[in-house]
Amino acid sequence: MTVSLQPEELGTSFELSDHLADPAHLRAIDFKALAPETDPGHPPRILVLYGSLRERSFSRLVAQESARLLQYFGAETKIFNPSGLPLPDDADTDHPKVQELRELAKWAEGMVWVSPERHGAMTGIMKAQIDWIPLSLGAVRPTQGKTLALMQVCGGSQSFNAVNQMRILGRWMRMVTIPNQSSMPKAFTEFGEDDRIKPSPFYNRIVDVCEELMKFTYMTRSRSDYLVDRYSERVETGQELIDRVNKSGN
Predict the structure, then answer these.
(1) Residue 8 pLDDT more than 60?
(2) What fold is seen in the domain 2-249?
(3) Which of 202, 216, 178 is nearest to 21 (CA)?
(4) Model pTM score
(5) Rounded-to-integer distance, Cα 92 and Cα 3, Å
(6) Taking a C-beta distance cutoff of 8 angstroms, is the pair 153, 122 a contact?
(7) Which of 22, 30, 34, 53 has a CA between 20 and 30 Å from the CA of residue 70?
Protein backbone atom coordinates (compact mmCIF):
# COMPACT_ATOMS: atom_id res chain seq x y z
CA MET A 1 0.00 0.00 0.00
CA THR A 2 1.28 3.42 -0.97
CA VAL A 3 0.80 6.14 1.61
CA SER A 4 0.67 9.74 0.51
CA LEU A 5 1.19 11.41 3.83
CA GLN A 6 -1.04 14.40 4.40
CA PRO A 7 -0.47 16.79 7.32
CA GLU A 8 -3.47 15.49 9.26
CA GLU A 9 -2.15 11.92 8.93
CA LEU A 10 1.16 12.96 10.44
CA GLY A 11 -0.41 14.03 13.73
CA THR A 12 -2.53 17.15 14.19
CA SER A 13 -1.49 17.40 17.85
CA PHE A 14 2.13 17.82 16.88
CA GLU A 15 3.50 21.04 15.45
CA LEU A 16 6.68 20.22 13.57
CA SER A 17 8.23 23.58 14.45
CA ASP A 18 7.95 22.77 18.18
CA HIS A 19 10.33 19.88 17.60
CA LEU A 20 13.05 22.03 16.07
CA ALA A 21 15.74 23.89 17.97
CA ASP A 22 15.19 27.05 15.93
CA PRO A 23 12.43 26.79 13.31
CA ALA A 24 13.00 30.40 12.24
CA HIS A 25 16.03 29.25 10.28
CA LEU A 26 13.85 26.88 8.30
CA ARG A 27 11.25 29.52 7.47
CA ALA A 28 13.99 31.76 6.11
CA ILE A 29 14.96 29.26 3.40
CA ASP A 30 13.54 30.00 -0.03
CA PHE A 31 14.10 26.74 -1.86
CA LYS A 32 12.33 27.95 -5.00
CA ALA A 33 14.99 30.64 -5.42
CA LEU A 34 17.38 27.84 -6.38
CA ALA A 35 15.22 26.75 -9.30
CA PRO A 36 15.95 27.86 -12.88
CA GLU A 37 13.35 29.54 -15.06
CA THR A 38 12.59 26.16 -16.64
CA ASP A 39 11.46 24.69 -13.31
CA PRO A 40 8.09 22.90 -13.69
CA GLY A 41 6.67 24.81 -10.73
CA HIS A 42 4.93 21.97 -8.87
CA PRO A 43 6.07 20.79 -5.42
CA PRO A 44 9.08 18.44 -5.60
CA ARG A 45 7.88 14.84 -5.75
CA ILE A 46 9.80 12.67 -3.28
CA LEU A 47 9.50 8.89 -2.87
CA VAL A 48 10.60 7.45 0.48
CA LEU A 49 11.71 3.80 0.82
CA TYR A 50 12.47 1.99 4.07
CA GLY A 51 14.01 -1.41 4.74
CA SER A 52 12.21 -3.23 7.54
CA LEU A 53 8.88 -5.05 8.01
CA ARG A 54 8.94 -5.12 11.82
CA GLU A 55 5.80 -3.96 13.59
CA ARG A 56 7.81 -1.15 15.20
CA SER A 57 10.26 -0.44 12.45
CA PHE A 58 12.65 2.39 13.23
CA SER A 59 13.57 2.78 9.57
CA ARG A 60 9.85 3.27 8.85
CA LEU A 61 9.57 5.81 11.67
CA VAL A 62 12.56 7.73 10.28
CA ALA A 63 10.98 7.53 6.82
CA GLN A 64 7.75 9.02 8.19
CA GLU A 65 9.64 11.75 10.04
CA SER A 66 11.50 12.56 6.82
CA ALA A 67 8.20 12.79 4.98
CA ARG A 68 6.89 15.22 7.60
CA LEU A 69 9.96 17.41 7.19
CA LEU A 70 9.86 17.32 3.40
CA GLN A 71 6.20 18.28 3.41
CA TYR A 72 7.03 21.07 5.84
CA PHE A 73 9.57 22.26 3.27
CA GLY A 74 6.93 22.14 0.52
CA ALA A 75 7.44 18.74 -1.11
CA GLU A 76 4.85 16.13 -2.06
CA THR A 77 5.83 12.81 -0.49
CA LYS A 78 4.84 9.19 -0.92
CA ILE A 79 6.07 6.23 1.13
CA PHE A 80 6.23 2.75 -0.37
CA ASN A 81 5.31 -0.11 1.94
CA PRO A 82 7.58 -3.06 1.00
CA SER A 83 5.29 -5.65 2.58
CA GLY A 84 4.26 -8.14 -0.09
CA LEU A 85 6.99 -7.18 -2.55
CA PRO A 86 8.43 -10.44 -3.97
CA LEU A 87 12.12 -11.19 -4.14
CA PRO A 88 13.74 -10.06 -7.40
CA ASP A 89 13.26 -12.70 -10.14
CA ASP A 90 10.80 -14.62 -7.94
CA ALA A 91 7.81 -13.04 -9.70
CA ASP A 92 6.98 -11.43 -13.02
CA THR A 93 7.29 -7.68 -13.43
CA ASP A 94 3.50 -7.45 -13.70
CA HIS A 95 3.21 -8.31 -9.98
CA PRO A 96 1.05 -5.56 -8.39
CA LYS A 97 3.67 -4.53 -5.83
CA VAL A 98 6.39 -4.39 -8.47
CA GLN A 99 4.19 -2.28 -10.72
CA GLU A 100 3.33 0.00 -7.79
CA LEU A 101 6.99 0.54 -6.94
CA ARG A 102 7.98 1.19 -10.54
CA GLU A 103 5.17 3.68 -11.08
CA LEU A 104 6.26 5.53 -7.95
CA ALA A 105 9.87 5.55 -9.17
CA LYS A 106 8.73 7.12 -12.45
CA TRP A 107 6.58 9.66 -10.57
CA ALA A 108 9.36 10.75 -8.21
CA GLU A 109 11.85 13.53 -8.83
CA GLY A 110 13.87 12.55 -5.78
CA MET A 111 14.08 9.71 -3.28
CA VAL A 112 14.97 8.99 0.33
CA TRP A 113 16.30 5.53 1.20
CA VAL A 114 16.28 4.55 4.88
CA SER A 115 17.69 1.15 5.84
CA PRO A 116 18.51 -0.59 9.09
CA GLU A 117 21.97 -2.07 9.30
CA ARG A 118 21.81 -5.84 9.55
CA HIS A 119 24.96 -7.99 9.66
CA GLY A 120 27.00 -4.92 8.73
CA ALA A 121 24.97 -4.14 5.60
CA MET A 122 21.68 -2.81 4.29
CA THR A 123 18.78 -5.22 4.67
CA GLY A 124 17.62 -7.58 1.95
CA ILE A 125 14.27 -5.81 2.08
CA MET A 126 15.96 -2.54 1.13
CA LYS A 127 18.07 -4.14 -1.60
CA ALA A 128 15.06 -5.95 -3.09
CA GLN A 129 13.23 -2.66 -3.59
CA ILE A 130 16.22 -1.11 -5.31
CA ASP A 131 16.74 -4.21 -7.47
CA TRP A 132 13.15 -4.05 -8.74
CA ILE A 133 13.75 -0.52 -10.09
CA PRO A 134 15.50 -0.91 -13.46
CA LEU A 135 17.71 1.64 -15.17
CA SER A 136 15.12 2.00 -17.93
CA LEU A 137 11.44 1.27 -18.47
CA GLY A 138 11.02 1.58 -22.20
CA ALA A 139 11.91 5.17 -23.00
CA VAL A 140 11.65 6.23 -19.33
CA ARG A 141 14.65 6.21 -17.01
CA PRO A 142 13.11 6.00 -13.54
CA THR A 143 16.22 6.94 -11.54
CA GLN A 144 18.77 8.71 -13.73
CA GLY A 145 19.27 12.36 -12.92
CA LYS A 146 16.95 12.24 -9.90
CA THR A 147 18.10 13.24 -6.43
CA LEU A 148 18.72 10.79 -3.61
CA ALA A 149 19.18 11.11 0.17
CA LEU A 150 20.49 8.26 2.32
CA MET A 151 19.85 7.38 5.96
CA GLN A 152 20.33 4.37 8.20
CA VAL A 153 19.35 3.27 11.69
CA CYS A 154 21.60 1.14 13.89
CA GLY A 155 20.76 -1.24 16.71
CA GLY A 156 24.08 -0.54 18.40
CA SER A 157 26.95 1.87 17.92
CA GLN A 158 26.99 4.26 15.00
CA SER A 159 28.03 2.84 11.66
CA PHE A 160 27.92 3.98 8.04
CA ASN A 161 28.00 0.61 6.29
CA ALA A 162 24.43 0.76 4.98
CA VAL A 163 24.59 4.35 3.72
CA ASN A 164 27.94 3.67 2.07
CA GLN A 165 26.50 0.65 0.26
CA MET A 166 23.43 2.58 -0.83
CA ARG A 167 25.63 5.42 -2.07
CA ILE A 168 27.33 2.94 -4.43
CA LEU A 169 23.92 1.85 -5.71
CA GLY A 170 22.78 5.45 -6.16
CA ARG A 171 25.85 6.18 -8.25
CA TRP A 172 25.30 3.02 -10.29
CA MET A 173 21.71 4.13 -10.98
CA ARG A 174 23.05 7.55 -12.05
CA MET A 175 21.21 9.42 -9.33
CA VAL A 176 22.34 12.77 -7.93
CA THR A 177 23.17 11.49 -4.45
CA ILE A 178 23.48 14.40 -2.05
CA PRO A 179 26.64 14.71 0.11
CA ASN A 180 24.89 14.76 3.48
CA GLN A 181 23.62 11.57 5.11
CA SER A 182 22.27 10.36 8.45
CA SER A 183 23.17 7.42 10.68
CA MET A 184 21.29 6.98 13.95
CA PRO A 185 22.96 4.75 16.60
CA LYS A 186 20.87 2.83 19.16
CA ALA A 187 17.74 3.90 17.36
CA PHE A 188 15.52 2.29 20.01
CA THR A 189 16.64 5.00 22.46
CA GLU A 190 15.83 7.89 20.10
CA PHE A 191 12.03 7.49 19.96
CA GLY A 192 9.34 8.23 22.51
CA GLU A 193 6.29 6.13 23.29
CA ASP A 194 4.44 8.11 20.61
CA ASP A 195 6.93 6.78 17.99
CA ARG A 196 8.26 10.27 17.35
CA ILE A 197 11.96 11.07 17.29
CA LYS A 198 13.15 12.87 20.39
CA PRO A 199 14.93 16.23 19.96
CA SER A 200 18.63 15.47 19.56
CA PRO A 201 21.62 16.03 17.27
CA PHE A 202 20.49 12.92 15.36
CA TYR A 203 17.13 14.52 14.66
CA ASN A 204 18.88 17.69 13.58
CA ARG A 205 20.97 15.68 11.11
CA ILE A 206 17.77 14.28 9.56
CA VAL A 207 16.56 17.86 9.18
CA ASP A 208 19.88 18.68 7.50
CA VAL A 209 19.50 15.83 5.03
CA CYS A 210 15.90 16.71 4.11
CA GLU A 211 16.82 20.37 3.71
CA GLU A 212 19.74 19.52 1.43
CA LEU A 213 17.60 17.14 -0.62
CA MET A 214 15.12 19.95 -1.27
CA LYS A 215 17.93 22.24 -2.41
CA PHE A 216 19.44 19.71 -4.79
CA THR A 217 16.04 18.71 -6.16
CA TYR A 218 15.12 22.29 -7.02
CA MET A 219 18.54 22.88 -8.57
CA THR A 220 18.59 19.76 -10.73
CA ARG A 221 15.12 18.47 -11.59
CA SER A 222 14.66 20.61 -14.72
CA ARG A 223 18.28 20.05 -15.72
CA SER A 224 18.47 16.28 -15.22
CA ASP A 225 18.38 15.40 -18.94
CA TYR A 226 21.37 17.64 -19.51
CA LEU A 227 23.23 16.41 -16.43
CA VAL A 228 23.03 12.72 -17.40
CA ASP A 229 23.66 13.24 -21.11
CA ARG A 230 26.80 11.32 -22.14
CA TYR A 231 29.13 11.54 -25.11
CA SER A 232 29.41 7.75 -25.40
CA GLU A 233 25.64 7.38 -25.56
CA ARG A 234 25.36 10.11 -28.19
CA VAL A 235 27.93 8.26 -30.28
CA GLU A 236 26.04 4.98 -29.83
CA THR A 237 22.70 6.59 -30.68
CA GLY A 238 24.19 8.27 -33.74
CA GLN A 239 25.60 4.97 -34.98
CA GLU A 240 22.24 3.26 -34.48
CA LEU A 241 20.60 5.99 -36.57
CA ILE A 242 23.18 5.53 -39.33
CA ASP A 243 22.64 1.78 -39.28
CA ARG A 244 18.87 2.19 -39.56
CA VAL A 245 19.23 4.60 -42.48
CA ASN A 246 21.65 2.27 -44.27
CA LYS A 247 19.36 -0.70 -43.66
CA SER A 248 16.28 1.12 -44.97
CA GLY A 249 18.19 2.23 -48.08
CA ASN A 250 19.21 -1.30 -49.06
Answers:
(1) no
(2) Rossmann fold (3.40.50)
(3) 202
(4) 0.84
(5) 24
(6) no
(7) 53
Helix axes 161-172, 124-131, angle to 10 degrees: 10
Which one, of 236, 222, 247, lies nearest residue 36 by Cα? Answer: 222
Q: Which residues contact 44 (CB under 8 A, 6 or more apart)?
A: 70, 74, 75, 76, 109, 110, 214, 217, 218, 221
Per-residue pLDDT at 234: 79
Residue 152 scores a pLDDT above 80: yes
Residue 2: per-residue pLDDT:
39
The candidate with the shortest Cα–Cα distance to 201, out of 184, 213, 187, is 184
Cα(62)–Cα(64) distance, rounded to whole angstroms? 5
Residues 6+ apart with CB under 8 A from 247: none
pLDDT exceeds cutoff 50 at 9: no
For residues 167-177, give the mean pLDDT: 93
How many residues are recorded in the chain? 250
Domain boundaries, the chain: 2-249
